[in-house]
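[job 0412] stage=fold_complex status=start
inputs:
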Amino acid sequence: MSEPVLAVEALHVAYGPIKAVRGCTLRLDAGETVAVVGANGAGKTTLLRALSNLLPHESGSVRYLGAPTERAGPHELARRGLFHIPEGRGTLGRLEVRENLRIAYDVRPADRSFEAALERVFERFPRLRERHDQLAGTLSGGEQQMLALARALINPPRVLLVDEPSLGLAPALVEEAFAVLGEFHAEGIAILLVEQNVYSALRLAQRGYVLRQGEIVMEGPSAKLLADAEMLKHYLG
Amino acid sequence: MSLDLALFTGINILLAWSVYLILLTGTLSFANGAFMALGAYVSGVLTAKFGIGYMPAMAMAAAASAVIGVLTGYPALRTRGIYLILVTLAITFFVQTAIENTKFVGGVQGMGGMMGTSFEIVYGSVIVVGALIWLLSRSPLQRVLDAVREDEHVAGAIGINVVYVRLALFGIGAALAAYAGGLYAHHMFFVAPDHFTIIVSVFIVLYVIMGGVNNMWGSVVGAVILTVLPEAIRFIGEWRQGVFGLLIVILLLFRRDGILPFRSVTARSGRKADA
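[job 0412] stage=fold_complex status=done
writing structure:
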C-alpha cells in the first residue's frame, strides 16, 4: 500500500486545559476526498488548524508526503502544497480581488505566468473577473468563498484543507462551492473537508470520519456512513 | 520657518516613517523613542568619544538599533494588540532608565561633543528614505505586508512567513528611528535621557495616526503639522498644550483615518503597472 499524502497518528490538541482534539488517527490518500463531519464544537476546526500547524500539537504525529510536519511553519506547509482554506473564507477584505489572487501567486509561484494563472481562474469564476478591482470585503459571502477557492486554484496544491465551505451560504451557493471542490478532486487534488453539512460533504467524499467531542467515533466509506443513518444521527446529535 | 524648526521637521518625518514601516505589518510601536535614543547615544559616543566619522557612526548606530530591535522584537512580537503596545512602551522605559544609569554616557547629566548636522544631510536623508518607501509601496512586497497586517492567520495559510516579515520590518523601523536619533543628537550637540521620554514615542505614533496610516504621505503631513503647529500657536502662551491637545482630539473625531486617509493607488494590484 502506498504512503498516504497526509497521515495523522493519535493527535492531541488542547487550548490550555480544554482538550479539543483527543487522539485522532486519520489518513488522506493521494487524490482522495475525505470528509470530517461532526456537530458544532466537535473539534473539526481545531483539527484542521493543527494539521496546517496554525495550532501547536500536544502529542501525536502528522506526516505530509511521508515527512513529519512538526518543525514546519504554516507558511512552509503552504509552499509545499498543503493549503488551508480557513473557516470564514479568510479573504483579505481591504485588498482587491485581484490583489488577493496576486499575493497567493507571488508566495507560491506556478510554472505559468500570473496572467495565465489568472485567466484560468477567471474562466472558472466569471463573477470574480467582473469584480476583479473590487475590495474583497465588499463581495457577497458566496463570492468570497469563490475567491478563497480561487486562491487555491491559482497554483493547485497537493492537498487542500477546507473548513466549512458551506458556512453562511445560501443552498444554491453551497452547491456551487461543492461543485468546485468536485472539480478540484477531478484534477487530482486530495481534499480534507471539514463540514457540519453532513450529507453534502459525505456525498462529495469517498470516505468520511465522524468526530464527536474531539474523538473519531465512526469512519468508513461515505456510502456506508450515509447508510447507517441511525448511528450518524446519534453521533451528530 | 527657522532652520532649526526645518531640521526638526525633517527629523520628525523620518521618525514618523519609522513607525509607519512597522505599522505596515500591523504592529503599533511605542518603542521608537527608545530606538531614537539608542541611535542618538550610539552615534554620539562613536563620534565624540571614539572620533569615528559622521556617516560611519550613523550607519553603526542604525545597525546596532536594528539588532536590538530584532532581539527585543522576537519575544515582543509574539504578543498581540494591547499587550504588544505595552511591551513596546516597556522598551522605551527600559532604554531611558538604562541610559540614566550609565556613567559612561553621562547618566542623567547627558552627554555632548557631537558634530552638528545640516539642512542638506537631513533633507537628503528624507528624500532617500522617502524614495525607498515609495519603491516599496509599488513592489510586490507591499501586498505581502498588507496581507500580514490584514490577517496574520490567512497570511500564514497562503504561505507568508508572518514572524519573519514582522521582525524584518520591526528591525528596519528601529534602524530608521536610530538614524533619525543620530541626526537629532548631532543637531542638538547635546543629548540627555529626558529628551527621550515616553512622550516622544507617543508623539511619533501620533504623527502617523493623525496624518493617516494608509499611505506614506500621511506620516509626512502629520509630522510637519505636529512639529510646526506648536510653534505657530506659541502666541497663546500658557494654554498652548491644552489647545494643541484639543486640536488633536477634534481632528481624530472628524477624520478617524487621518488627514490623508487614502490607500496608495500605487500599492494596489499593480494593475496600472502590468495592464
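[job 0412] summary: The CA atoms of residues 28 and 262 of chain B lie 19 Å apart.
[job 0412] exit 0
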